[in-house]
UniProtKB/TrEMBL annotation, chain A:
Pfam families (UniProt xref): ABC_tran (PF00005), oligo_HPY (PF08352)
Domain ABC transporter: 5-253, 302-550
Keyword annotations: ATP-binding, Nucleotide-binding, Transport
Protein name from the UniProt record: ABC transporter ATP-binding protein
SUPFAM superfamilies: P-loop containing nucleoside triphosphate hydrolases
Protein's UniProt keywords contain ATP-binding: yes
One function term, GO molecular function aspect: ATP binding
Region (Disordered), start-end ranges: 270-297
InterPro entries recorded: AAA+_ATPase, ABC_transp_ATP-bind, ABC_transporter-like_ATP-bd, ABC_transporter-like_CS, Oligopep_ABC_C, P-loop_NTPase
Gene3D superfamilies membership: P-loop containing nucleotide triphosphate hydrolases
Compositional bias of kind Basic and acidic residues: 270-283
UniProtKB/TrEMBL annotation, chain B:
ABC transmembrane type-1 domain: residues covered: 132-344
Species per Swiss-Prot/TrEMBL record: Antiquaquibacter soli
Annotated region described as Disordered, given as residue ranges: 1-28
Membrane topology: Multi-pass membrane protein
Location(s) in or outside the cell: Cell membrane; Membrane
Predominant location: membrane
UniProt xrefs under Pfam families: BPD_transp_1
Gene3D superfamilies in UniProt: MetI-like
Domain of life: Bacteria
Entry's transmembrane regions: 34-56, 132-159, 171-196, 221-242, 287-305, 325-351
Protein name, UniProt field: ABC transporter permease
Keywords of the record: Membrane, Transmembrane, Transmembrane helix, Transport
Record has Transmembrane as a keyword: yes
Automatic annotation (TrEMBL), chain C:
Taxonomic path: Bacteria, Bacillati, Actinomycetota, Actinomycetes, Micrococcales
Record's keyword terms, sorted: Cell membrane, Membrane, Transmembrane, Transmembrane helix, Transport
Pfam family, one: BPD_transp_1
Protein name: ABC transporter permease
Organism: Antiquaquibacter soli
Compartments where found: Cell membrane
Ranges for region Disordered: 1-26
Length: 562, 357, 312
């Protein structure tokens, strides 16, 4: 084998005036021709910054301040902009994370190909159309998509098109920067399969950048683990899996498990079956709240019957969208129920209906004597004092201009009789409950001063402020780094057990559903296709759709590379 | 008129499930829905503008009709028919408001706005139809030139961000767009007309020429139109530069521009076919709306240059309290801007494939 | 939306979030930081300096102006001289003094009409952005109507009906024709903010709609509101000058617009008094430019991509 890419002591800084951040520090590695290598790291590890630098696409404020990148022996820093541009044919091609937005909305797919052929002149003009058709077929799309505009294609199709476009450059090296993270779970799986097949049939060298060690181990031969701007481990996939050397790699690995297994344990979580009713073993992260719920007896279930929600057609002349189709279930006091499905399955719509954000088309939702479906705006407080929500994106769920204290004081004042100093004491208690200590310090912070995990804890504290009976958690950890997920899940679990709150846990991630819920409902296109005890359903899935969902869970131990 | 189609309603997510089961992409390019909607909106806006023109004089204190009739009487006896027409138009309560409104609509449809007080016995329609072509040609052509030129300069400024090719057009544009129209006109008139005597100082054609479709008249008219045209060009150019630069800069940060660069497309292609082609869309909408401002500015310009278009006529109508003429002119100006907006809307539909859905 | 998304990041933000400790910024610090951002922009700084110059001129006009605004009795249509730096008008008034006093009118009209237009725009834009359904469609239609009806002709017609109303009338007319643009911009921003999770979260926190609009949404639009104020003030200054130039205002007051009105009516073009033509227009242009320049800095706050700096 010969070396294709040689990266030596590369350092990349973000320079904003006098403010310098080292994003990548003194990184060296090399790629052999024809290799499939994964580059894995959590947010802020510098992996994408490094990927862009390898492709010669670093843009201010990122500056390569040290080291060199040799592609086939040529230092890419020595190339003029025009040489760099020409080198993109037969050099490094890149597929971006946001591949769905990487296409020009006002140009047809065919024109995207033509622009590339025209810029590099590597295809005879009369072969342009034929070559474009060939390329889209390689990514498993019909040639008819060539006459479409990007807006007429689905996200997965657009990502496939951008892979085909990158392929049209006949690259030696393809850098895939999180190529599937913006896609739906099931689509992710299919696109990843295509990438793996293409790499084998076309023979390019591939660098797959991902935050998901599971995805990387499934596809790559060798894995680079990046942490805080440094490569902490560089080893073949098998040895990463079987004998990880670095603590960080070990930590990442510990967060993977197969939801189908008989016993599923994650850091901080003993298997549910084993503990059966006992509090979580190491649940001492947070002191049990003094305000634990005392009125256990008057808790009420949420009863959903024949719930249907139909949206008007998204575009003129199309059919209306049945988001939720005759769904019935009961969420008992203290129960933890998972609602799983891919995007479009209607699970988030159910959350909106239960919290009265949307009105049902038909069917009923009852919470005690409240008919949720017919609540008017003025009556929302009655519902929201008992049913609260934890949002998916902790960055969007907090007003950037309000301090944590303001954010938490509002529901305390609106839902309880506490005012002034009492309200403040309650706010500090809530912060302590969610583990944000020292509480005084966190109370004074603004959202941008908090990390993603800390923000999500504030969001949870806000949901607890009214002392609710039910918490709807809509993908509460999907935007968080893997290493932070377990902590937030553990918090939710503790709250449920110690406060007796019931939880509707909405997710596409079956592993986390297995960890924190007793019962499960699988939704496909608005309909419930399977339901039952979480462990039972996941171990013995009956419906094809459930099997598909299970297959799409990244599993480091299942290599897809032949 | 907002041209951007409404955002899709909050559906759970794209109904994008398994790609294998995904329906083949639907060919959605039916432009007629979009065009019909725009025609409907245009007619509705037209009706509203006509109605505003009817209500406006009725909201004002005093009855302009009294003043108007008194004024008309100076020119000789007023016929009953004229009196009735003026009263209907200016809101003298003959019959109820609804009947007046129907009568007024009839006048609008037949373009019969009665007789001008100032230029008695010429009818308002005659006066307007003589003046309108001058303004339409002058303002129309100059605006299109200014838009194209300004857009190109804006693209260049954004592409060469931070260099003098950016600073000069942006600061210059900000300064020029702050010029009052009439001041630019006065300065040009003073220097090019009086001091250097390069161009005629007033009128749309020389005293010896008569309007006709001849080469000589065309050259003469063009010669007279240069100063007003340059004024409008100077004053409106800056706005287009700034507008395009401001939409172009965020577009340059969009993913498809980054991807186009990553694919090694030529800088020119990236700048024009990718960035500018998208950045121009929101600007097209502002183009339609800013047109009203240019038309307003041209009134001031025509007044300074004594250019016999609708602006000059409107100014005369206002100073002479010639209400029928004023009302008809306002209606025609509004109508022109509405039509221009409608054309821009249709053009937008052609340029943006997303509107065809 | 339930698509898995990458933990928050994109290529340019792939750096560890800095977590400064210590006290949060109070409103004054926020204001200071905003002002600092504007000031750090070279163009905006130039604009602020020009604006400050005219504001000081207007405030201290009684001290600075060599003569009264309407003090006549000097030589008529005189050229520049040591006594009258910019000459005199056809009515025998000092041009420089008129220019200095005239700053008061332009700045007053700009501030008041700009503020009132913005107020209407904020009220309409926010409530329009927060309502849905039929009423929103009706408002949409009305705003669009105001947007397409050409402003100046409408002003001229209204001014003609309200003949001789003076400054107050001009302000009313400018506000009537000038609020729609800002309303539209603020509405679309309100719509985008109201669909954000933190607004939904505020509903869950038991907040009333009024408080949601004014405490959650409004503060996130500060820079847009400031921007639309400067935009409206610029338009107001130009419109006021235009109406007065046409003689549709109160032509007895001394403003830059009326100065040009009298200059044209007294044939300053023929007498060759260029200063009389040049100076008032230049003042209007400079004042309006200064506001446009400040908006470059304001844009930088709301849209970091527009901040100054070499990008490619």
């Amino acid at each position: 084998m010969t070396t294709l890419l040689d990266v030596t002591s590369v350092t990349i800084d973000y320079i904003n005036g006098d403010d310098v951040t080292h994003a990548v520090r003194d990184v060296s590695f090399s790629l052999e021709k024809g290799e499939f290598v994964g580059l894995v790291g959590e947010s802020g590890s510098g992996k994408s910054t490094l990927g862009f630098a390898i492709a010669g696409l670093s843009k201010p404020p990122a500056h390569v301040t040290g080291g060199q990148v040799l592609l086939d022996g040529v230092d890419i820093a020595s190339l003029s902009p025009e040489q760099l541009r020409e080198q993109r044919h037969g050099g490094v091609a890149m597929v971006l994370q946001s591949g769905m937005n990487a296409l020009n909305p006002v140009r047809t797919i065919r024109n995207h190909f033509r622009d590339i052929f025209e810029a590099h002149g590597h295809i005879e003009k009369d072969r342009w159309d034929a070559r474009a058709a060939e390329l889209v077929q390689k990514v498993k799309l019909p040639a008819t998509v060539l006459d479409r505009y990007p807006g007429e294609l689905s996200g997965g199709m657009r990502q496939r098109i951008s892979i085909a476009l990158a392929l049209s450059l006949e690259p030696k090296l393809m850098v895939f920067d999180e190529p599937t993270t913006a896609l739906d779970v099931l689509v992710q799986h299919a696109v990843m399969d295509t990438i793996i097949e293409l790499q084998q049939s076309e023979g390019f060298t591939a660098l797959l950048i991902s935050h998901d060690l599971g995805v990387v181990l499934e596809s790559a031969q060798r894995v680079l683990v990046m942490h805080d701007g440094e490569i902490v481990e560089d080893a073949p996939a098998q040895s990463i899996l079987n004998s990880p050397q670095d603590d960080y790699t070990r930590m990442l690995l510990s967060h993977y498990a197969d939801p189908r297994a008989d016993v599923v344990e994650l850091p901080g979580f003993e298997d549910r079956g084993k503990r059966a009713g006992k509090p979580r073993a190491e649940g001492a992260v947070h002191p049990p709240s003094v305000h634990g719920r005392e009125r256990r007896s008057d808790q009420k279930p949420i009863v959903v019957e024949n719930l249907t929600k139909v949206y008007p057609p998204p575009r003129r002349g199309e059919a209306e969208v049945v988001a939720v189709d005759h769904v019935s279930f009961t969420l008992d006091p203290g129960e933890s129920l998972a609602l799983v499905g891919a995007s479009g399955s209607g699970k988030s719509t159910i959350a909106k209906l239960i919290t009265a954000v949307e009105k049902p088309t038909s069917g009923s939702i009852r919470f005690g004597d409240l008919d949720v479906g017919s609540l008017r705006r003025g009556q929302f407080r009655r519902l929201h004092s008992e049913v609260q929500m934890v949002f998916q994106d902790p960055y969007a769920a907090l007003n950037p201009l309000h301090t944590v204290e303001y954010t938490l004081t509002r529901p305390v004042v609106n839902f309880t009789k506490l005012r002034g100093r009492d309200a403040r004491r309650r706010v500090l208690e809530l912060l302590e409950t969610v583990g944000l200590t020292p509480v005084e310090e966190f109370a004074a912070k603004l959202p941008h001063q908090l990390s993603g995990g800390q923000r999500q804890r504030v969001v949870i504290a806000r949901a607890l402020a009214s002392d609710p009976q039910v918490i709807i958690a809509d993908e509460p950890v999907s935007m968080l780094d893997v290493s932070l997920r377990a902590g937030v899940l553990a918090l939710l679990e503790d709250l449920r057990e110690q406060w007796g709150v019931s939880m509707l846990y909405i997710t596409h991630d079956l592993l986390s559903a297995r960890i924190v819920t007793d019962n499960i409902m699988v939704l496909n296109q608005g309909r419930v296709v399977e339901r039952g005890d979480t462990a039972d359903v996941l171990r013995n899935p009956q419906d094809d759709y459930t099997v598909q969902l299970l297959d799409s869970v990244p599993n480091p131990r299942r290599s897809r590379v032949a | 008129m907002t041209s951007v189609t409404a955002a899709p309603r909050g559906v759970d997510a794209d109904p994008e499930v398994d790609e294998k089961t995904e329906a083949p992409p639907s060919r959605s390019g039916n432009p007629w829905g979009y065009i019909l909607r725009k025609i409907g909106l245009f007619l509705l806006t037209l009706w509203a503008a006509v109605t505003v023109n009817f209500i406006l004089p009725r909201l004002m204190p005093g009855t302009p009709a009294d003043a108007a009739l008194a004024r008309l009487a100076q020119n000789g006896p007023v016929s009953e028919a004229t009196k009735a027409a003026i009263e209907a138009q200016l809101g003298v309560p003959t019959g109820n408001l609804f009947e007046q409104y129907i009568q007024y609509l009839g006048q609008v449809v037949t373009l019969n706005f009665g007789v001008s007080y100032t230029f008695y016995p010429q009818t308002v329609s005659e006066l307007v139809s003589t003046a309108l072509p001058y303004t339409l040609v002058l303002v129309g052509l100059v605006t299109i030139i200014a838009f194209i030129l300004g857009t190109l300069l804006g693209v260049l400024a954004a592409w060469k961000r931070g260099t003098w090719l950016d600073t000069l057009p942006t600061v210059g544009g900000a300064f020029m767009s702050a010029f009052p129209y009439f001041w630019t006109a006065l300065l040009l008139l003073f220097f090019a007309g009086y001091v250097w005597r390069l161009f005629p100082t007033s009128g749309a054609y020389g005293p010896t020429a008569t309007p006709a479709f001849t080469w000589d008249f065309f050259v003469d008219a063009l010669y007279h139109a240069i100063l007003p045209a340059v004024t409008i060009l100077i004053t409106s150019l800056g706005g287009w530069i700034l507008g395009m630069r401001n939409t172009m800069i965020p577009t340059l940060g969009d993913d498809y521009v980054a991807f186009a660069e990553a694919n090694g497309l030529k800088p020119r292609t990236v700048a024009l076919r990718y960035a500018a082609r998208n950045a121009i869309l929101p600007n097209l909408t502002s183009f339609g709306l800013a047109l009203g401002g240019v038309v307003g500015g041209s009134i001031l310009v025509e007044q300074v240059f004594g250019y016999p278009g609708v602006g000059y006529l409107l100014f005369n109508a206002v100073t002479n309290q010639d209400y029928p003429l004023m009302q008809a002119l306002f209606l025609m100006i509004t109508l022109s801007v509405l039509v221009a907006n409608f054309i821009v809307d249709i053009l937008y539909g052609v340029l943006d494939p997303r509107t065809r859905r | 939306m339930t698509t898995t998304r990458q933990p928050m990041r994109d290529a340019t933000q792939d750096i560890r979030t800095v977590q400064p400790t210590g006290a949060p910024p109070n409103p004054w610090q926020v204001f200071a930081r905003t002002a600092g951002t504007i000031w750090s922009n070279g163009k905006a700084r130039l604009g602020l300096i020009i604006l400050a110059f005219f504001v000081l001129l207007a405030i201290f006009a009684p001290l600075i102006a060599p003569y009264g605004a309407t003090e006549n009795g000097f030589d008529r249509s005189a050229d520049a001289s040591p006594e009258h730096w910019l000459g005199t008008t056809a009515a025998g008034e000092d041009v420089l003094s008129q220019l200095i006093w005239g700053a008061q009118i332009s700045i007053f009209v700009g501030l008041v009409a700009g503020a009132l237009s913005t107020l209407v725009a904020v009220l309409v834009g926010l409530s329009w952005g927060y309502t849905r359904g039929f009423i929103a469609d009706v408002i949409n239609f009305i705003v669009n109507l105001f947007l397409v009806i050409p402003g100046l002709p409408l002003m001229i017609v209204i001014a003609a009906y309200l003949s001789g109303g003076g400054i107050g009338m001009i302000i009313v007319v400018v506000v009537i024709t000038g609020w729609a643009w800002g309303a539209r911009v603020l509405r679309s921003q309100t719509q985008s903010l109201r669909s954000r999770d933190f607004v939904t979260a505020a509903v869950f926190s038991g907040e009333r709609p009024f408080r949601i609009v004014f405490r959650e949404i409004l503060p996130n639009m500060t820079s847009l509101i400031v921007g639309s104020f400067f935009g409206a003030a610029t338009a107001a200054i130009l419109a006021e000058a235009g109406l007065e130039f046409l003689g549709l205002g109160d032509s007895s007051i001394v403003s830059w617009g009326t100065m040009l009105f009298w200059a044209q009516n007294s044939n300053a073009l023929l007498t060759g008094q260029w200063a009389l033509l040049f100076a008032p227009g230049l003042c209007i242009a400079l004042l309006a430019t200064s506001l446009t320049l400040i908006n470059f800095g304001v844009d930088g706050i709301s849209n970091p991509r527009l901040r100054e700096g070499k990008q490619r």
